[in-house]
Amino acid sequence: MERITDTLKILNEEDKQNLDNARISVDESNDGKRKLYIESYGCQMNFADSEIVASILRDNGFATTSKYEDAELILLNTCAIRDNAEQKVRNRLQHLIPIKKKNPLVKIGVLGCMAERLKAKLLEEEKVVDMVVGPDAYRDLPRLVEEAETGQKAVNVFLSREETYADITPIRLDSNGVTAFISIMRGCDNMCSFCVVPYTRGRERSRDPHSIVKEATDLFNQGYREVTLLGQNVDSYKWSPENSENAESVNFAQLLEMVALVNPDLRIRFSTSHPKDITDEVLYTMKKYENICKYIHLPAQSGSTRILELMNRTYTREWYINKIDRIREILGEECGISQDIIAGFCTETEEDHQETLSLLEYVKYDYGYMFAYSERPNTPAAKKLKDDIAEDVKKRRLNEIIALQQRLSFERNKLAVGKVHKVLVEGFSKRSNEHLQGRNDQNKVVVFPKEHFKKGDYVNVFVTDCTAATLIGHSVTEELV
Ligand code: 5AD
Ligand code: SF4
Questions:
Q1: Is residue 23 within 8 Å of residue 173, measured between CB atoms?
Q2: SS3 of 2, please?
Q3: Is the CB of 194 under 6 A from ligand 1?
Q4: CATH number of the domain encompassing residue 29
Q5: pTM for this structure?
Q6: Does residue 342 lie in a domain region?
Q7: Which residues are near ligand 2 (CB < 6 Å)?
Q8: CA of 214 to the centre of ligand 2 (A)
Q9: In this predicted structure, what is the pLDDT of residue 17?
Q10: Is 265 left (phi over 0), alpha (psi -120 to 50) or beta?
Q11: What's the CA gap between 272 and 235, in Å, rounded?
């Protein structure tokens, strides 16, 4: 097996939202192989896709490198969710112009959601680009690279109703060797009015559960101790076997159970849930298995029913609150819950904004991802509604939401102090090699003195202190209470 170093480089330190950070490929040992550099933007699904791309290209003679200056093939796997995500990629492309001038044989490809959104137009707008490849066309990459190498521009942006890349074993690109992502479905059928994803990732389709269980089992056997099941809307996972009339279909709760049974020492997480689809069956399955983490990322987007309707979220504020109550009822107060919120959506009034703040207060989220609304061309909101909230108002509301979430995260973390938490060690703490860092069940980062522990261990940590972002403690021998 080729060795992959476990570097994760966050290129834009200023950008606090994970979703907008870029990750770059790592150095594989490359005995005679051609060098490929991949830089990934956007969500975890996109990072998981880059691992599939690396796998497809490895079978065609490429090995990844962390230095784009050394690469023959440079790929940017892009995000289109907000305008600033696209601007970042355009800036990056400008930086690549001198590389291409120096060596015209270098080929540059844009993959992912921005490729799908802009299609061949991207070739006209960004002359440095040789290939434009949408998220369902990665199997075609070897052919597209060949085409580009003949000096032509290559494009494949066909969306598929079937492609799940189920049979491709991803190359873990920035792995800590302990936690990994598994894509369980692709696309999205929800049609939230603000969102570009249904157009860039196509129709929703679920991956064969047996290939998912196999991937989880293989990861466990390689030493991984946590998998995150990924999809735009995991709760609507549904797989029906083809050509067999009697075989049962598998829903998300059943899939969770199948993966939980791989091994009790393999932790299971999942993301993202849509409030309209998360069922009691899922919540009871979470409760039944100790190794399914008690943490749910449940985007609200807004606390105002009027805005939720304009967003086409298909639930009201009350319905969302009922869902939260149900989660707490079945899984207890300690279940971690995080949110996505958009500030300044079309027509949002101060009252609507106050309703968002009061929703945050009600739920007391552990964590949140918060954004200013960014109009995306051709989405239902762009077509039907006016982006009428001034940028400074959006920013001010966003800052208020972020400040409140910071306070709530700190409050929730304080509840964790004085208790023992089971922590899966992911590596050294960012600040010191004398400390380790891992996560507890609720996805909170826990830092504690290293002693004799190592990556991949489960350690019972007594938490003595916290910040809004981190729990701090030391290992103990007693069991969890
Ligand atoms: N503007 C701002 N934020 C957006 N999101 C999705 N589309 C937009 C947009 N047009 C946010 C939502 C979603 C998260 C992944 O990104 O909160 O849940
Ligand atoms: Fe960005 Fe959405 Fe595409 Fe992920 S699915 S890369 S968040 S646009």
A1: yes
A2: coil
A3: yes
A4: 3.40.50.12160
A5: 0.93
A6: yes
A7: 42-43, 45-46, 79-81, 112-113, 196-197, 200-201
A8: 26
A9: 39
A10: alpha
A11: 8
Q: Is residue 168 part of a domain?
A: no
Q: Which of 28-32, 37-41, 138-142, 387-391 has the lowest mean pLDDT?
A: 28-32
CA distances from 417 to 250, 368, 422, 431 (A): 39, 20, 13, 21
d(CA 135, CA 159): 7
Residues 442 and 398 in one domain: no
The H or E element that residue 148 is part of is helix 141-149
Å from CA of 374 to ligand 2 middle: 14
**340 Cα nearest atom in ligand 1:** 17
Residue with the bigger pLDDT between 241 and 171: it is 171
104 by Cβ neighbours in 10 Å (0-12 / 13-18 / 19+) ranks as: exposed
1-5, 170-174, 224-228, range with greatest mean pLDDT: 224-228
Residue 28 DSSP code:
B
Closest ligand 1 atom, residue 341 Cα: 17
CB 190 within 8 A of CB 198: yes
Tell me: the pLDDT tens digits for 333-343?
999 999 999 99
Scored b (16 or more CB within 10 A) or e, 308-340 reads bebbebebebeebbebbeebeeebeebbbbbbe
Quick one: 377 and 240 in the same domain?
A: yes
Nearest CA to ligand 1 atom 7: 195
Q: How large is the average pLDDT for residues 144-166?
A: 97
Domain for residue 163, yes or no? Answer: no
Ligand 2 atom index nearest CA of 81: 8
